[in-house]
Amino acid sequence: MNKLTKKYSMALAALLILLYHCWINVFRYGSVLGNIERFIVTSSFVGVDIFFFVSAYSLSTRPPEDYVSFILNRALKLMPLFIIAYALGTFLWFLPSLMIVYLIFPLVYNKCKQNPGISFMLLMLAWAVVTWLVLGVLKPEQDYGIFLFRIPVIILGAYAPYVSKSMLTTKKQRAVLGTLFLVFGTAVVYIWGYIERINVPFKGTFYLTCIPQLIGIMLLLGLIEKESKIINYFASMTLELYFVQMVTGNWLINNVYKLSGSRILTNLITLGVVILLSKAISLIGETINDTPKKIATNERG
Asked: Quick one: pLDDT at residue 270?
């Protein structure tokens, strides 16, 4: 996965998550367009899986870095958003879950990468046992399945580089393979992730249905070779988009719809406001992070 593929992946993840939380259905329920619209919106949960997959892939291919410094940098980026949202009454499960990945991943992966085949199977087995213990034995009141059933995607993302190295395929072969995975995966999501959600044995099991679709998406995105300013724009504020839509999305949708009475107008205004606020927060974060570097540069100068 090159930088361009990563940008397209992160932008797609951001847009899908935005669609999932901030889009109200426009077309009539039961109509052909209405069914297509509802399926697209409902299945957009794959955006979270794309983000986790890309994050794990990036972690497994990044150059060695001081663990403490790495964790501090990630905490400074994620936790302020989480704390602000929590203070406003919204629990952003995605941010602490991502922080857990950052905390545990380097320690576990460094031990496992020496023997990827066996370690992959052991990690998947460990995931199955932990998931069963948490959801089946402890039976918590909170729905931890929303994160636990994303762990296989994280593991797949971490080991994807090994598969990429062994798959000496042409672009045409990757295009065909990606299309097959996408079509088959979309059918799986439609049947078991949309019409009849798999919740046996545990609630949240349906999240696993998006894995074939996810593989197809990543294979096809890897074929893109053209840079895009719009894609760069969205890729630069994935976390901020998640934060803003979760904190303000419902409030914006309800109030804009009360004023406009139009579903289309409500969607356009809500998406526009969320995107602008997210970009503003992203720019503020960049300014804060760049300030110490500028000060250090001036002092050396």
From this structure: 95
Burial label, 276 (beta-carbon count in 10 A; 0-12, 13-18, 19+): exposed
Q: What is the DSSP letter of 150?
A: T
Give the separation between CA 58 and CA 104, rounded to whole angstroms.
Answer: 15
Q: Tokens 């936790």 correspond to what residue?
A: 79
Distance CA 117, CA 166 (A): 13
What does pTM read for this prediction? 0.91
- Three-state SS sequence of 264-297: HHHHHHHHHHHHHHHHHHHHHHHHHHHHHHHHHH
pLDDT given at position 164: 66
Tokens 């001036």 appear where?
298
Which pLDDT tens digit goes with each residue over 171-197?
888 899 999 999 999 999 999 989 888
User: Within 62-166, where are the H helices?
Assistant: 67-87, 94-112, 116-131, 145-148, 151-166
pLDDT band, residue 199 (cuts 50/70/90): confident
- Considering just the CA atoms, what is the radius of gyration of the chain in Å? 20
Q: Is 55 exposed, middle or buried (0-12, 13-18, 19+ CB in 10 A)?
A: buried
